[in-house]
Design brief:
Shape: globular
Order of helices and strands: HHHHHHH
Strand content: under 5%
Length: about 180
């Protein structure tokens, strides 16, 4: 278990990131990974990737669950609880407040402009998150090949993503991706 100041620093960072995460918390995963793996060394790339995979496999609010795993790794059960609260608390307050304003001014011309501007920002952040997670998970040529094939399938076909996830899970279970 790390010091209490580590938990405070982690929760402050998660609260700040949850407040700016347009498109959902996955858009700020590159910053979370950099903060917990590179800057502080609280976990390895492999642990971070494993937490991400586990959170994606379990139904429910997966990013809150993932940040709970990160908090648990840093400071045990209290860290998990504080990290979960820091992940959804500030964003919920912000979204509720903004929604009330958005609804109040729904006929204002600036709303259309804001929606048009936020779409490419969100798409870019999601792509950056995917690239960071791929770099963290692709530790050899086989894993990189599977990632590239999965990306190509998703971009070029209308295949249901669950089939790609199951195929990746099968390959991992068979030991192809070690």
């Amino acid at each position: 278990m790390n010091s209490l100041s580590d938990l405070v620093e982690l929760s402050a960072r998660l609260a700040m990131l949850s407040s700016i995460s347009f498109g959902g918390f996955p858009t700020v995963l590159p910053d979370v990974r950099s903060f917990v793996v590179t800057t502080h060394g609280w976990m390895t790339d492999q642990e971070f990737t494993n937490f991400f995979a586990l959170a994606q496999a379990i139904p429910g609010p997966n990013m809150i669950l993932m940040m709970s795993f990160v908090g648990w790794k840093v400071w045990g059960m209290p860290g998990a609880i504080v990290s979960a609260l820091a992940t959804f608390g500030p964003a919920c307050v912000l979204y509720f407040s903004v929604y009330r304003l958005w609804d109040r001014f729904r006929s204002a011309p600036w709303q259309r402009i804001a929606r048009i501007g936020l779409a490419p920002v969100t798409i870019g952040l999601v792509i950056a998150s995917g690239a960071v997670m791929a770099r963290a998970a692709d530790h050899d040529w086989r894993a990189a090949t599977v990632t590239a094939a999965a990306a190509a399938l998703m971009l070029l076909t209308r295949l249901n993503p669950i089939f790609v996830l199951v195929a990746g899970g099968v390959l991992g279970g068979l030991g192809v991706l070690r």
